[in-house]
Write the structure tokens for this entry.
Amino acid sequence: MSGRFADQLITVLPRLRRFARGLSGSVTDADDLVQAACERALARQHQFQEGTRFDSWMFRIVQTIWIDQIRSRDVRKEDGDIAQDRLGSDEPVRRVEASLALDEVRRALDCLPPDQRTALLLVTVEGLSYKEAAETVQVPVGTIMSRLARARIALQVHLEAGRGRRRSNNDAAAQ
Amino acid sequence: MQQRSDDRLVAYLDGELEAAQQSEVEAWLDADPAARQRMAALAESARLLRLALDEAIHEPVPDRLIAAARGETVAPQAGAEIVPFHQRLGAQILGPRRRWIGLPVAASLFGILVGGGVGYFGVGKLALDGVAGKRAALEATAANNLWLDNAAGYFKLVVNAGDNPPVDIPATGDPREALQKISQNLPQKIQLPKLEPWGLSFRGARLVVEEGRPAAALVYTTDKKEIGPLALIIGSTKQSDIPPTFDRRQDVNLLYWRHQGRAYALVGQANIGYLWGIANDVAWQLDAV
């Protein structure tokens, strides 16, 4: 194994963990995903093309493994089903506002269908351009654009719904 | 229609529109308060999303992932060499303890002697406490491989980050504040060794994992290319004391030792001479020898 390859891999680990955490919604699952991605990358390092973005290559590996896992576990749900499950939750809200908002974001992310979630994480969190994100997941740029827009709007709607629920809870508590 | 408008707004926020399209959106935003409000909401949700996932970037990377990235398991590695502080070559030149200016000179001399003679790993052939002591120390060293891998990995993150080393608590203003903050997360308080005479500036502290416990990585940078950035990792340990021992991971040099419940590792790309001199200084300052 080349030292440079391992160095690149170590450098990108924090971002891979963030990306994987966004995809899987779980710290442990995310680290398992990153570990599997490292092992796969090392086994296939000859496939990496010098001069291309290493982080994009790794994101693609993480995303591919994640999709494989979803398929093998057969836990993939339709968009609406997941969203309704989550939005219907009346989990008591007792933590501070800021923390709640972030929890809400994580839940909202978890509700997005995998392709939208991937596009959102690659562009909005990891800062890839539409073109780079399209290359990473191997779809046309227009597809990324539309997945991203749907994801952003869904996220916003979810957050608005969360704020509404919190306001109602606060009002009820005040009465 | 609404969907198409939102697509435009999202692409505008992401800086993905051509100049002409961008102007169109700006004109639309000027004329439509509802569109402005929608755009602000989209921007805010993106900000919250980044914030929600940000913690993953600042947490210590688990040992197993660094090991996986290196394609390594926790198998012991050979190659560690003991470099006792108390039998330093430059003792006659240096005079009393903590002769600040003398230390870099001694370290350079040490590096030249070692480099010109038998190379880095020849250092272990300097005076030792006997073969049995060396063997025992090497066996203890074998158990350290994983955290040394981690230490080297963290250091690579520092090097690759260039002028902005990744630290959890930056040393802005009074460095003691940074130390105080990082100490809150550690089983024991730590002191900050002053390494200015080496041209090293303290840049901040990062919380890492050493021997399965939280530890502090103190990050120093310098303009001196021959020394380069350095990380001093200080943690607690339940293992027995070991003498200063030199090891390396690829192009990263490590000098580590344990003393009275504390584990120390100085990590950098400086040659063993500098590393030894700086570690010696750290050991004296922190009463860690």
Notes: Residues 74-79, 86-132, 134-138 of chain B have pLDDT under 50 and may be disordered. The longest strand of chain B covers residues 201-210. Chain B is about 45% helix and 20% strand.
